[in-house]
Design brief:
CATH superfamily of the largest domain: SCP2 sterol-binding domain
CATH architecture of the largest domain: 2-Layer Sandwich
CATH topology of the largest domain: Nonspecific Lipid-transfer Protein, Chain A
Strand content: 5-15%
Oligomer: single chain
Number of helices: 11
Largest sheet: 5 strands, mixed
């Protein structure tokens, strides 16, 4: 799927929601903020219900396939500029409380399976640091613990629509490596607080989580009929 098609998909998708901004890879942060209109969130369930179930299910299915090629074009420096500030905001209280000290001189690998994205996090001088695979290889370092899930499940966790423990026992959320570090990572996942994000980004995550969970619930119910 080429980038032009990906852009057209987002333009069409947003137009059904009443938004008029155009999604461009070069303006990814602003596009993420402006993806849905401000007055939509309070009525998101009603809006979601108006979209046919098959269409919603198809959108969820094809979204990773559309995003993967585009994200591969995004250099690590740009990914870091987007992700690291967001993580610092989400885990601000945990960082201030010293809950990340277990990652001192340790590395956590984060994998979004369906998007084929990997990042490595550590903690140094009271702040989160991020590295790429090439940076770790050049220093002959490997991760001590790894955390992996699909993008959909991460959104559901962040939006408080799914409990990390439930996903862990369903093997939709995987933590591998050092057992003690793995428990610390799970505790951090429980501490995710999207209220620390800018209100527009918070609304986007909340909308995405509601969209995913409602669609999955309806699909499950329809399969029983």
């Amino acid at each position: 799927m080429n980038l032009l098609f990906s852009e057209n998909y987002f333009i069409w998708y947003k137009s059904t929601l009443g938004a008029t901004n155009v999604f461009k890879l070069s303006s990814l942060p602003q596009a993420a903020v402006n993806l849905i209109p401000d007055n939509l969130i309070s009525n998101d369930k009603k809006m979601i219900a108006r979209l046919p179930l098959k269409l919603r299910a198809r959108m969820i299915d094809v979204m990773p396939k559309l995003l993967r090629p585009s994200l591969r074009l995004l250099p690590f420096s740009a990914q870091k500029a987007l992700l690291l500030p967001a993580l610092i905001s989400v885990f601000q209280e945990a960082i201030e409380d010293g809950d990340f000290e277990f990652l001192q001189d340790k590395w956590l690998k984060i994998s979004i399976i369906d998007l084929e994205l990997d990042w490595w996090l550590s903690f140094d001088q009271d702040k989160l640091v991020m590295a790429s695979m090439s940076e770790l290889k050049s220093s002959d370092i490997i991760e001590d613990v790894s955390f992996s899930a699909t993008g959909d499940d991460l959104i559901l966790i962040a939006g408080r629509k799914q409990d990390p423990d439930t996903l862990f026992f369903q093997r939709r959320l995987k933590i591998e490596g050092d057992t003690e570090l793995g428990l610390e990572v799970k505790n951090l996942i429980d501490a995710i607080d999207i209220d620390q994000l800018p209100s527009s980004v918070h609304s986007l995550v909340a909308f995405g989580a509601t969209f995913l969970q409602n669609t999955r619930d309806e699909l499950a119910n329809s399969s029983r009929v």
